[in-house]
Amino acid sequence: MAAAVGRICGARLFRNTGIVGPQVCQLSTSAQGWTRNRKLLLSTLGVVGGGVGALLFALEQSVQASGSEAHPPHQPWSHDGWFKSLDHASIRRGYEVYKQVCKACHSLQYIAFRNLVNVSHTEEEAKAEAAEVMIKDGPDEEGNFFERPGKLSDYFPSPYPNENAARAANNGAYPPDLSLICSGRKGGEDYIFALLTGYMDPPAGVTLREGQNYNPYFPGGAISMAQSLFDEAAEYSDGTPPTASQLAKDVATFLRWCSEPELDDRRLMMIKVIGMFSLLSAVVYYFKRHKWATLKSRKLAYKPVSKK
Amino acid sequence: MSLWATLNRTVFKRTSTFALAVASGTFFFERTFDVASQAIFEHINKGKLWKDIKHKYE
């Protein structure tokens, strides 16, 4: 190893230049310019890197403009922003919407009842929610599968036993699992809100197949999910008026929480990171001044040695 | 004698006391830092967090 390094760097490495020598060399730009090859390499790298970046940006932009679907407008989510947590009252209402409406067709298989504890429900309430559903369990001692009331540790049961059953019940379309849908769709909660509230009559010239509906926010426009949110389509236990847009907003917030249960922690971490890094940059700034003080206040004097 | 010099003499000079200072300094700094960050977070998000609404359900 040492031999290889020595061969590459030559004797330069072993020459004793003192502590100041190398620093002074790096300080002056004119004394030791870049070699031609180095310049060539770096500028090629810069051009290639910039070009690839610009190409990716252009491709991404053209994809956005090429589709026929409407772009979901941005909504003022209360969790939008570096330090903003999710609105937990809204998560709780969104869970009620999921339970009363979406659960009929969509599974939420990566969320367990225990996840609700101290997020939207107390432990007692979450236990009660779990006890309301029947979970398939087994095999018991005789080898039979049986149904029992849910426990905190159970995941949300799915409405259909498998994908084929789900397709058969929905005109061949598969209602996707909603656990990660908010992160899995472009536009996130804006898209979900726009999709749920954006149903309309198909424009002239668009023909829909049996069981399809027109929604300009869905890629292609023809969606197999019928409009499910209307005013008073669900009931809220906290007395909020259940208008269609309120239901859509709450279920979108709930689905954002399902996709990113750690969102609140990340927002808190942001505050900590900013605090910690400002302390560290103060230290680094002080240290830089400290180290450069000698260099900046240095005077070099050349004393001709008289020949005697 | 200045505070700095006193501190230097009594704490930083000996490795044992210096190590102790580092350990306890870390502990207290981290504790205050966490508590302060949490307080800022809860202030910004007042009314939205679970702890703000849980009294309704207990």
From TrEMBL, chain A:
Q: Which GO terms describe its cellular component?
A: mitochondrial inner membrane
**Gene Ontology molecular function:** electron transfer activity; heme binding; metal ion binding
Cite the binding residues for heme c. Answer: 102, 105-106, 225
What sections of the protein cross the membrane?
A: 40-59, 268-287
Q: Which Pfam families does the record associate with it?
A: Cytochrom_C1 (PF02167)
The record, for InterPro entries, names:
Cyt_c-like_dom (IPR009056), Cyt_c-like_dom_sf (IPR036909), Cyt_c1 (IPR002326), Cyt_c1_TM_anchor_C (IPR021157)
Residues of the Cytochrome c domain: 89-241
GO biological process assignments: mitochondrial electron transport, ubiquinol to cytochrome c
Q: Where in the cell is it found?
A: Mitochondrion inner membrane
Task: Enumerate the Gene3D superfamilies for this protein.
Answer: Cytochrome c-like domain, Cytochrome c1, transmembrane anchor, C-terminal
Coiled-coil stretches, from where to where?
none
Give the highest taxon in the source lineage.
Answer: Eukaryota
Q: Which UniProt keywords apply?
A: Electron transport, Heme, Iron, Membrane, Metal-binding, Mitochondrion, Mitochondrion inner membrane, Respiratory chain, Transmembrane, Transmembrane helix, Transport
Cofactor(s) of this protein: heme c
Q: How is the cofactor bound?
A: Binds 1 heme c group covalently per subunit.
State the protein's purpose: Electron carrier protein. The oxidized form of the cytochrome c heme group can accept an electron from the heme group of the cytochrome c1 subunit of cytochrome reductase. Cytochrome c then transfers this electron to the cytochrome oxidase complex, the final protein carrier in the mitochondrial electron-transport chain.
Quaternary structure (record)? Component of the ubiquinol-cytochrome c oxidoreductase (cytochrome b-c1 complex, complex III, CIII), a multisubunit enzyme composed of 11 subunits. The complex is composed of 3 respiratory subunits cytochrome b, cytochrome c1 and Rieske protein UQCRFS1, 2 core protein subunits UQCRC1/QCR1 and UQCRC2/QCR2, and 6 low-molecular weight protein subunits UQCRH/QCR6, UQCRB/QCR7, UQCRQ/QCR8, UQCR10/QCR9, UQCR11/QCR10 and subunit 9, the cleavage product of Rieske protein UQCRFS1.
**What family does this belong to?**
Belongs to the cytochrome c family.
- What name appears for this protein in its UniProt entry? Cytochrome c1, heme protein, mitochondrial
TrEMBL record, chain B:
Q: Which GO terms describe its biological process?
A: mitochondrial electron transport, ubiquinol to cytochrome c
Q: Which domain of life is it from?
A: Eukaryota
Bilayer topology annotation: Single-pass membrane protein
Main localization of the protein described in the UniProt heading = mitochondrion
SUPFAM superfamilies according to UniProt: Subunit X (non-heme 7 kDa protein) of cytochrome bc1 complex (Ubiquinol-cytochrome c reductase) (SSF81514)
Keyword Transferase in the entry? The reply is: no
Q: Which keywords has UniProt assigned to this entry? A: Electron transport, Membrane, Mitochondrion, Mitochondrion inner membrane, Respiratory chain, Transmembrane, Transmembrane helix, Transport
Question: What biological function has been recorded for the protein in this entry?
Answer: Component of the ubiquinol-cytochrome c oxidoreductase, a multisubunit transmembrane complex that is part of the mitochondrial electron transport chain which drives oxidative phosphorylation. The complex plays an important role in the uptake of multiple carbon sources present in different host niches.
Q: How does it assemble?
A: Component of the ubiquinol-cytochrome c oxidoreductase (cytochrome b-c1 complex, complex III, CIII), a multisubunit enzyme composed of 3 respiratory subunits cytochrome b, cytochrome c1 and Rieske protein, 2 core protein subunits, and additional low-molecular weight protein subunits.
PANTHER family (UniProt xref): CYTOCHROME B-C1 COMPLEX SUBUNIT 9, UBIQUINOL-CYTOCHROME C REDUCTASE COMPLEX, SUBUNIT X
Q: What is this protein called?
A: Complex III subunit 9
Q: Which organism is it from?
A: Diatraea saccharalis (sugarcane borer)
The organism's lineage? Eukaryota, Metazoa, Ecdysozoa, Arthropoda, Hexapoda
